Amino acid sequence: MLVKVLNCLMRDDVQKIGIWGMGGVGKTTLVRELNNKLWKEADTQPFGMVIWATVSKEFEMGRVQKQIAERLDMEVKLGESEETLARRIHERLEKVSSFLLILDDVWKAIDLDQLGIPQTYGRKATKIVLTSRFLEVCQSVKTDINFRVDCLCEEESWKLFCKNAGEVTRLDCVEPLAKDVSRECGGLPLAIITVGMAMRGKKMVELWEHALEELKSSVPYVKSIEEKIYQPLKLSYDLLEPKMKSCFLFCALFPEDYSIEVSDLVRYWIAEGFIDETQNHGYLMNQGITLVENLKDSCLLEEGAHGETVKMHDVVRDFAIWVMSSSRDDSHSLVMSGIGLSEFPHEKFVPSIRRVSLMNNKLKRIPSKVLECVELSALLLQGNFHLEELPVGFLISFPALRILNISGTCIRSLSNSLSKLHELRSLILRDCFYLEEVPALEGLAKIQVLDLCATRIRETPRGLETLKSLRLLDLSRTHHLESIQAGIIPKLLSLEVLDMTLSHFHWGVQGQTQEGQATLEEIACLKRLSVLSIRVVCVPPLSPDYNSLIERLKKFQLFIGPTANSLPSRHDKRRVTISSLNVSEAFIGWLLINTTSLVMNHCWGLNEMLENLVIDSTSSFNLLRSLTVEGFGGSIRPAGGCVAQLDLLPNLEELHLRRVNLGTIRELVGHLGLRFETLKHLEVSRCSRLKCLLSLGNFICFLPNLQEIHVSFCEMLQELFGYSPGEVPTSVSVVPALRVIKLRNLPRLKSLCSQKESWGCLEHVEVTSGNLLKNLPISSNNAHRVREVRGETHWWNNLTWDDNTTIETLQPRFVPADGYIPTGSLGISCYQSFNTIEEASPLPSRSGSQAEELL
Questions:
Q1: Which end of the chain is less crowded, N or C, counting CB atoms within 10 A of the terminal residue's CB?
Q2: CA-wise closest residue to 334 among 272, 376, 273
Q3: Which helix (H) or strand (E) segment is 132 a member of?
């Protein structure tokens, strides 16, 4: 990290550098090392002067100015105003040929002009480095680059711990316990140092066992821990607004190292009233996501294990639990999540408790004793798989309950006392696989979220129609749901999200469903609905009601047909999947106008549908970004006179063709007038008749934005890009932006392009079972950009090259396909070792973005 900062200081385009990270992670140590290194190398480093000033939480302009003035050998006059001193500092620094200003521990935006700091971007060696716990503080002073200081890896943590705990860590009886203690510090340098020093010289195993137990308890009493570890975190916590404090503390209810779905977290916050519940669902979700990002920028939350999740650092979580367990206000909570608990801790349920988290344990039964926790607002019991019932009188102990989560349990039924929870906002029964019936819901007038995902219910609960405040109804994966009575759905006037993904229930239009069953017309009545995912019997006809519904939805997934289903895509915000249907008479144009992703799966009548689409369409489908056609055994008829006069899919970014009977993609292009000017990702698989991927010509001369090509199991394919008879090749590269090409099981493939080309942006190449391919579009001009070429060794050895420079550049980047491990399955992290006490680790690697979820 120190080297990275030094390198940036040498760059002409960087004047201000921000260094941020949680309290105690080593930011000050890092800039102190920077300061000391520059002082030691005073004769060779580029700065005529290095100035250090500590800002701190209680910022006083005059105090910081005085530190700067003293370093400049300036006399600060008694009673001198801040404005006068700022002017004098500015004049003094203007006379210095070059300087570096280090501002340590900045807590809020600081006006450099008021401080007296000249900001002249033309001066190469006039630089500013500041440290803060908050990214937004760095950004507020318009930093050019920001470095996040993260926690240490386990190996570096252990080295630092041993350095502070001393030789005692080498004792056979102590070392295993010492490693566990070190691990509990979660890589936080300040915690490692403090705990290490506290245990220095202690040889008794009992002392180490006690220290480990206290650290795991989240309420540690090891000497100096609270003062030296939690105090820095408490400063960050105290700076939060009350609403942010509540949101932050709620995150600690989840188990250690647990990745929390952001959408679930925000819904909890809404149910608790931390976020104004009067706004619409989309607004509230955006507000919640903003709060999550603010907590991440404050280093109180961090990225989770996968996209759209967050988690708490172990030490930060321990601190939050310490705050909640020692509090007697509305944050008083009991947190015993993910600790293997098998007995219900009823003795810990005190009247003042507000939140209880017993999730992810081994609870089998709950005593029927009334607990009288009249202030309890959240009860999290999810993940106790062996739990089979809630006693009849259990729920009436919590009259103020707003959140009840018993998902992932073996609960088979719930008592009627559920209806007594008049304050309930969120009832989550997800993955209760044995739950066949939910008691009547009358009395839950304030409920906003009802999650019945993956339960065994056969019909919707009685009293559902009375839930006038219900905003989200999740019936996804209800594989046994057979009936939704007519007249229920239109009464849910506040409903904004209806998720029935993979439900057994299929919606139909009026006249095509069983008498007494709900129809699509009822969904169209929901004026506040913004998110919808349902299975539909057939393609709905165009009607004003349906068209109005689709237009006002912000997100939707329509699975049309008896077996409709598909894998997610990054463009699934508004997806239509049509499966196992005769689409020859279907008009889908009105749907495509509002769709971002279309999947056609094992349909027939595709030729007629394409012709109807061309004939009936008066404009392009500008929103469509992704098109998938799979399992079409018939041949695509030549377009003939039925050709679109304009590109019907001008913004198409992804094209997936699987098991489609095509000789070339141009056969599909002809009908729809496709130009592929925005196409970024092309995937073709198991198209047995395909001989040329794409014939170039008048319609398509090149693919300017194509970045990835994946072609596999096309046994007749001989060439990727060829030219139609009579067409003259252009001088422009066919795929000037292509970065990745993966070719698998293509036994007849001989050429990538009929004319010799060098694809200048190519980075990753994979060819397996394609031994006839002898040339790659790589020359000495672009070989340096290629990061990896993967394939069988005998194929690699038989390739021909224009010159030795190309093969010499690529040889170290060749990876044999034998023992192939897919990219992304190995996590590789590199850590820089630091020699001072409060070591800092380098920037973390960030995971790639995941496919966007519907909810």
A1: C
A2: 376
A3: strand 126-132
pLDDT tens column, 380-416: 999 999 999 999 889 999 999 999 999 999 999 999 9
Taking the C-alpha atoms of residue 232 and residue 551, their distance in angstroms, rounded to an integer, is: 51
Q: Which of 832, 826, 827 is nearest to 155 (CA)?
A: 832
Q: Are 68 and 99 in contact (CB under 8 A)?
A: no
- Rounded Cα–Cα distance for residues 835 and 647 (Å): 62
Contact assessment for residue 251 and residue 310, using Cβ atoms and an 8 Å cutoff? yes
Given the DSSP bridges, would you call strands 449-451 and 740-744 parallel, antiparallel or unpaired?
unpaired
Instruction: For residue range 251-295, list pLDDT tens digits in order.
Output: 999 998 789 999 999 999 999 999 988 888 889 999 999 999 999
Are 311 and 257 contacting, i.e. CB atoms less than 8 angstroms apart? Answer: yes
Q: Which of 21, 583, 671, 17 is nearest to 296 (CA)?
A: 21
Query: Residue 414 — φ and ψ, nearest 5°?
Result: -125, 145
Strands (E), 617-680: 626-635, 654-661
* Cα distance between residue 469 and residue 444, in whole Å: 9
Q: How many residues does the chain have?
A: 855
Rounded alpha-carbon distances, angstroms, from residue 600 to 280, 499, 591? 33, 21, 13
3-state secondary structure 698-719: CCCCCCCCCCEEEEECCCCCCE
**DSSP 8-state symbol, 215:** H
SS (H, E, C) 84-109: HHHHHHHHHHHCCCCEEEEEEEECCC
Please state whether beta strands 309-311 and 333-335 pair in parallel, antiparallel, or not at all (unpaired): unpaired
Same fold, 2-148 and 240-331: no
Coil, helix or strand at residue 48: coil
Question: What is the Cα–Cα distance from 720 to 705, expressed in whole angstroms?
Answer: 16
Tell the CATH topology of 2-148: Rossmann fold (3.40.50)
Model confidence, pTM: 0.78
Number of alpha helices (DSSP H) and beta strands (DSSP E) in the chain: 23, 32
The pLDDT tens digits for 626-659 are: 999 999 877 777 655 567 778 999 999 999 999 9
Angle 518-520-522 from CA coordinates, rounded to 5°: 65
Residue-wise DSSP of 838-853:
S--B-PPP-PPPPPPP
Q: Kindly list the domain boundaries of the chain, sorted by start residue.
A: 2-148, 154-223, 240-331, 680-823
Residue 330, SS3 per DSSP: coil
Does CATH number 1.25.40.10 belong to domain 240-331? no
Q: Could you please report the per-residue DSSP string of 144-163?
A: SEEEE-BPPPHHHHHHHHHH
Which residues are 677's β-sheet partners?
none
